[in-house]
Amino acid sequence: MIDRFKHWYYLYRQYIPSGLLYHRHHFAVRRLPRDDGAAARACREACLRRILRIACTHVPYYRATVRLKPTELANEPPFALLRAFPYLTKADVMAHHRDFLHERLDPRLLNYVTTGGSTGEGIGLWRSKRLADIEKGFLLSEWGQFGFSFHRSTYLRIGADARRPAHEPPCRRFGNMLLLSPYHIALRHREAIVAALNRVRPRFVHAYPSGAAALADLLASGDLTFPVRAVFLVSEPAARPQLAAIARLFHCPVSISYGQSERVNLAFARYELGELSPYRFDPMYGETENLVQPDGRAEIVGTSLWNDVMPLIRYRTDDFGHVDEHGICHAIDGRAQEFLIDRHGNRVPGLSVMPDPGSWAFVRLYQIRQSEPGALRLAVVGKHGSLTAEQKAHLLNEQQRRLVGLFDVMLEEVPDIPLAPNGKRKLIDTAARELLTPQC
Predict the structure, then answer these.
(1) pLDDT digit string (tens) for 250-286?
(2) Which 3 state secondary structure label does DSSP give 47?
């Protein structure tokens, strides 16, 4: 019933005035100055000062750890005040989870989301509708240049929210989105995928790079009878061969975004006519710093200028790349794009096999391990000691339900999940798997 309501909402929201759909700050961020002038600097300072004052006044964690007087918060340069805040890690946030929430907000009235990202280390985040609408506003500052609208444009979506069990069709219409399951991008579904695309005729593509590239490998450009204006790639890094394949299929610009579920930085790169631009971090979205490690790598650190619900200040992203004074970054390191191989020999994007949100209440670390095609082991570290039988059953049953027909799934409780050589934990571990050429 809820899915049916959402379908009709997404289908007919194009007829609802934008002012009724989005918070007023959604429109405000789209009008922000985009140059490096005095107006932009003053706006950034005002936004940062507001976040720092809220953090020191209404967020218990900062009130206990940061010693700044009200007069300093009101009068000192905000970018200098920022240096008084400690660096944060994901482990810090989860160890003092509730202490990062604005004390005057009722969590029952907020949206709570959980994610393990690319590391398999869970984090829970409270968000408001206002923050979600602000996020869309910043995305539209880039994607809107191509004529894209979240509520009016018809677009193809390939991601975790589009996944379906193996026995179901690969595509389904959900309002103004055509959802294509990343599990189904294989030769046996080719005809159904082409038919759905040509029937719906999406003008935009919103996808994981691995999903869009798999589709580009499956189809020929002549299979599509409609033009696509732009492709938006999210959540994973994109390799040049993938970008070239995606551009050959869709014959349009490709926008690559960098961000996190914690929403402390946002950057975009663009691939067009065979050329890949560097990433440019949006200075109006957040303050970006580099924390140089002993080995010389520059970790990306971010502070949102807008998150007054659960402020994350000087948050260490665990991603690496030198960001210059103009917000330019030529390469972002540390994120991995991993595939799993199902029992049919097809490559499945690793990020589409994620634990369900409820699992993070009792799971601290989570890793998907594969040593042979068609089989997965879920390695899990409990948050509060050993898992109960009910918790183990929940984890196993949830993934078996999603992955039926694709993988045999086993659960393995472990004391810890070691760091990879790059200092990060990996959500997907395929080190024990032979290098196989997938067969479609």
Answers:
(1) 999 999 999 988 999 999 999 999 999 999 999 999 9
(2) helix
